[in-house]
Design a protein that fits this description.
The complex is a heterodimer of chains A (about 220) and B (about 160). Chain A has about 220 residues and is mostly helical. Chain A is built from 11 helices and no strands. Chain A is globular and about 50 Å long. In chain B, the strands form 2 sheets. Chain B has a 5-stranded mixed β-sheet with strand order 5-4-3-7-6. A two-stranded parallel sheet of chain B has the order 1-2. Classes of the chains: A mainly alpha (about 220), B alpha/beta (about 160).
């Protein structure tokens, strides 16, 4: 049982790791952590998936473990693939547009992130009994690949949880609408029910920016 | 009853699905012949048993899912040369969006990998791009209006 105590202790540390996107947009007071995100994602997966023919146990497990790797790999956003402006005050402006990459750069980014996260997850689960370790790694591979309908569903809900949080911060601060999350999400989700839900999130939280924002070039 | 849905797949995607189906069927054979661990009667956690049980149940579900996909496949075919000026399933649109260049290959939901530029034909952007030609400006409007200017269309 000691190995489980160690594992749960490590997992608890995710409460103290803020999600990178919220740091970049300048949330100073208690930015939502990996734990906050995974918890709401699991709840959303369960409730939004009720009309789907899903294996709920698998879907919720995927939601709960999908970011465990970030304990050692950190939270990598698409904005981290290029150098960020030196002035941190410029960072939120980056989120006015979704970052674009060439096909080969997309592949390179994906492989680099995948390798880093796989190594990290192997480390996180290293002390666990073999079958449990295998189960967590297999769930994560499924999530990464989007093989099963459960994994594809959680991947999309993951986008929506992030969009919801971005819009909540945007409404709270009344500063920017953070277009990038919306634009990126429109390219990434395809479940008709989730598309409708995305529109509902927007109806409630979207607001126009006070001033016209300028796109910055690095 | 499983939902009747057509699954659009490229020939590569179909090959992968068939391969996975064969591998899983063999795995099921091996697992069902193997020894099933006895159920633990104490309240202690026994991950080995739980995981094994989970695996078998999942294996069965996944095999059924793959059988459903294989029964409802629509193979994506490359259009004739005359029709390659229009973006259809399997085609790649090189676009200009928010002043930057990007490219999207439109695939079915099973093969969509947005981080690699493969987007689903059922996603808002995938749906909007379908049927358009080079020079078209495709507007995806929701509260936030985004314009995708099609610069080039490619088919492999």
């Amino acid at each position: 049982m000691k190995e489980l105590v160690d594992f749960f202790h490590e997992v608890g540390k995710l409460r103290r790791i803020p999600r990178r996107g919220w740091v970049l947009i300048g949330v100073k007071k208690d930015p939502a952590s990996i734990t906050d995100h995974s918890f709401r994602l699991a709840i959303m997966t369960w409730i939004l998936g009720k009309k789907k023919r899903l294996n709920f146990e698998r879907a919720v497990k995927i939601a709960l473990i999908h970011d465990l790797c970030e304990l050692y790999a950190g939270d990598i956003t698409p904005y981290d693939y290029e150098s960020l402006p030196k002035n941190k005050k410029e960072w939120p402006k980056l989120f006015d547009s979704w970052p674009r990459f060439t096909k080969s750069k997309k592949l390179k980014n994906f492989l680099k992130k995948h390798k880093k996260e796989k190594t990290a997850l192997t480390k996180v689960t290293s002390g666990l009994p073999l079958e449990l370790k295998k189960e967590i790694l297999n769930l994560w591979y499924d999530y990464e690949k989007g093989s099963t309908k459960e994994a594809r569903f959680v991947r999309q809900v993951n986008r929506l949880e992030t969009l919801l949080q971005a819009f909540e911060y945007s409404k709270e601060t009344k500063k920017r609408p953070f277009h990038s999350w919306w634009v990126g999400t429109e390219e990434q989700i395809d479940d008709p029910f989730l598309i409708k839900f995305m529109e509902k999130i927007t109806e409630k939280f979207y607001h126009r920016p006070r001033k016209k924002t300028k796109k910055i070039r690095k | 009853m499983m939902q009747r849905k057509r699954f659009y797949l490229t020939s590569k995607g179909l090959k992968d699905i068939k391969k996975e189906y064969e591998v899983l069927k063999n795995l099921r054979l091996v697992k069902t012949k193997g020894e099933v661990p006895k159920i633990w009667e104490s309240e202690d956690l026994n991950p080995e048993y739980l995981s094994f049980q989970e695996d078998l149940n999942f294996l069965e579900t996944r095999i059924i899912e793959l059988e459903n996909i294989l029964k409802n496949i629509e193979l994506i075919k490359t259009p004739s040369k005359k029709k390659r000026d229009v973006i259809e399933l399997g085609g790649t649109a090189v676009v200009e969006v928010e002043g930057d260049k990007d490219e999207f290959t439109i695939v079915g939901t099973l093969e969509a990998k947005p981080s690699l530029g493969k987007i689903s034909n059922e996603s808002p952007v995938g749906m909007a791009l379908l049927g358009h030609k080079v020079g078209d400006e495709v507007v995806v409007s929701s509260p936030i209006k985004t314009i995708y200017k099609i610069r080039k269309i490619k088919y492999n």
